[in-house]
Amino acid sequence: MADRDALLVAAVRAGNLREVHALLGPGSNPDATDEDGLPVLCTAVAAPGHGMAEALLGAGAPPDTVDARGLPVLCTAVAAGNTEVVRALLRAGAAPDPADGSGFPVLCTAIAAFEHRIVEVLVEAGADPDQVLPDGTTPLLRAVEGGSAATVTALLWSRDLQDPAARLPEQERERLLATARHWYEAGAEAELRRRTGATGPAKTSTVEEEWCEVEQITLGGRTVRAGHGAALTDLEAAFGVPTPLTELVARAVRHPDPGRVDWRESSTRLGRRSDEEARELVTALRHHPSADHRRFAADVLGSRQYFLKGTEYPHHAEDRDFLAAWAETETDAVVLAEVLRALTEHAEEHPRLEAIGLRHAGHPDPRVRRKVPDCLWWPERPLTAEAARALRALAHDADDEVRFQAALLLVGDERQDLDGPRAVVRDLVRDPHSPVRGGAAEALAESDDRTADATELLLALLDADDRILRLIGAYGLARRDDPRTPEAYARVEELGPIHRPDHRANALTDWRERNEAPPHGGNG
Is 453 within a domain? Predict the structure, then answer.
């Protein structure tokens, strides 16, 4: 193996993106810059003996370089789950469909690992999601069985693919729908147990997938995710198969959590619909005896305001009146909190909103009280005396999030005494166990609180074990033109690089422009 090839294999294995770009040559990332915004080539030239400049200036290593096992380095990058390294290799010309160690296309490796972003990159580069594999499956079928809705979506709708309803024959569409439906109806764990014959306990965990959560199950040496309901909904939409609205509801409330992928897919589908049938369904669900069904209806109304915003949807005001009336009568705290979220999420005024907020300011459930501040304020309107009084009381609430939200709104009203709400924010930053500490720290850094206590708190964040908290502390010092700002940013880098673009990272450059004299001979 040539030296340059060996270096590329090592860089890919280490996940060193900058070195991968350098070894592949200038064509792999023509827009690459270093942490200071300079072209990578400038950094390479300034680093003698590193080999980067020679790699950039000379011919790049072949992107299909193989490792000691004879596998292309793309297989290593995919197995490591490194999306950006995969992208760099493909951009440099690597074949998108080499076989991995099992003899199947590397696309199957990404599918098995639920790496939906890598799946999307591979398919966009030319990997075929519909090719028939030696065992009679296809990559898309494997993804459907695997239960990752995000992976299924990536294989259905990648940028250069033909519409799935047109590119897939009817028999294959039916097979995919039947597979998703079978896994969903049987249940992921039960079907996995049937297929593997395993009798022991399954290992389960909740993982994040494209802003949703889904259960991941490992049993008998195989791992699947329980997103088959969402995958089925997605396939039905892609193939033009109408899903009964009651079935969409059933798929959502089977796992009654708005963060779950099946719930989110059903809510999104219904939220995009403005027809009378969908509206009647949601209206009827308001009076359903199950709190889960009522909560789903409120979530759909919130989704509809987002998805149909700016369209010629004639029932927007009617939907908001519906939510306002509902907020005055709902007795379940969880459902009520969802109704208030739908009513306030888009910061849109409603004539009864303040009265609703005042009505629930003393609600016994903190989940409801957390939504009250948003009822009492909206942009371009000063707080009323009644709203300010309620917020001052909420700023002493037992719940951290309630106190934080109330304090933020009071700080934003110049007519209020700001010392009290500012102290609330500082106390939340001071508490290492507060669930809103990060948000409070960000608010403090952005604020015009110039007290000595605020500065000391920002300095104290530099001792945190969390890199983001350190960055927030450094950012707050930079905004205050504190002379310790460069040292603060150095403390951040002790825990890892500061990624750009990030307005908090760029604040150091702005601080230097304001506070450091230009080099000798410079302008100004």
Answer: yes
> pTM to 2 decimals?
0.85
Could you give the CA distance from residue 341 to residue 221 in angstroms, rounded to a whole number?
Answer: 42
pLDDT of residue 366: 98
**Euclidean distance between CA atoms 258 and 334, whole angstroms:** 11
Instruction: Please give the Cα distance from 49 to 385 (Å, whole number).
Output: 69
Place of tokens 């779950």: 260
DSSP class per residue in 246-291? HHHHHHHHTS--TTBHHHHHHHHHHHT--SHHHHHHHHHHTT-S-H
Cis peptide before 483 (omega within 30 of 0): no
Task: Identify the pLDDT of residue 161.
Answer: 82
Give CA–CA dist 394/406, Å, rounded. 6
> What residue numbers bound the domain in which 470 lies?
427-519
Q: Which two tokens stand for residue 392?
A: 């001052």
- Going 377 to 382 to 387 to 393, the CA torsion angle's sign is positive
Q: How far, rounded to the nearest angstrom, does the alpha carbon of residue 124 sit from its chain's CA centroid?
A: 21
pLDDT at 44: 44
- How many angstroms separate the Cα of 464 from the Cα of each of 469, 490, 494? 7, 14, 11
Give the dihedral of Cα atoms 16, 22, 28, 30; nearest 10 deg: 110
If you average pLDDT over every residue of the chain, what do you get? 90
In a domain, residue 468? The reply is yes
Total domains in the chain come to 1
Q: Quick one: average pLDDT of 85-102? A: 92
Any residues with CB less than 8 A from the CB of 349 and at least 6 apart, and which? 378, 381
Whether residue 462 is contained in a domain is answered as: yes
Statement: residue 47 has pLDDT above 50:
no
Helix (H) or strand (E) holding 119: helix 116-124
Contact call for residues 354 and 386 (beta carbons, < 8 A): yes
Give the separation between CA 361 and CA 377, rounded to whole angstroms. 13
